[in-house]
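User: I'm preparing a small set of examples for a lab meeting where we compare how different chains pack in three dimensions. I only have the primary sequence for this one, and I'd like the structure in token form so I can line it up with the others. Please keep the answer compact; I'll paste it straight into my notes.
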Amino acid sequence: MMTNWERLRPVAMPALALCATWMTGCTTYVTTQVTAFSQWSGSDATRTYAFTRSPDQQNSIEQATYEQIVASELDAHSFKQVSEGRAHYFVGLMYSMRGDMVTVTQPAYYANPWPGPYWRPINPWLGPYNYSSAYVSESYPVYTHTLGIRITERESGEEVYQVTANNTTEDPSLVGAMPFLARSALTGFPLSNGVVRTVRIPADGSGAPNEVTVKQPPTAVPALKAGSAGSAGTTAASPQ
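Assistant: Understood. Below is the structure token output for the 240-residue chain.
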């Protein structure tokens, strides 16, 4: 007498092989939310810049590391890093990491070996058992990483571009998240004023960002005219 598995094997094996192939080819992504405020009007000829640092960032190896990552992304948008005296723009960075606990509730299935009104006589995977479900909650830590990039004109001190990128992962490493934050923050530069964008980048870092979703505010945000932005440092959350 053939068992249930022997009856279904000719059908199940090709399906399992296809599933394994599909899972192997899957790509995981790091998803980042980006918010930009802009009155950008610069041309390629004026895209010279120098990094500026807050007092807490002076002589910081961590700061220098993040500046190199951001500089690489700025270079892709025709920016050229020069000395402070020759720079048309100053670029300031703000970054942070915050830990939280997330609780997920999901069904859990338990086997009952005794036949009952819901007994299933044929189940090649689990056998002829009764299954009932209950809900269990599990908590685990997640970490939100943030990068803010602020561009101001050197001579006037006016802020011309501010962008903030946030992503949440199970990895507490800010330096590990920084390449994704920097690339997401500057994807599509310069964004329009008040745009919120979702950027997905392959977790292995290969390839260009894809499936970029732009969300416009419920009420259209007007483009800012030159000189209408507040002076540098007026917003506490702005990158220093």
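A couple of notes for your slides: Confidence is low (pLDDT under 50) at residues 4-24, 229-240. The chain has three helices and eight strands.

User: Perfect, thanks.
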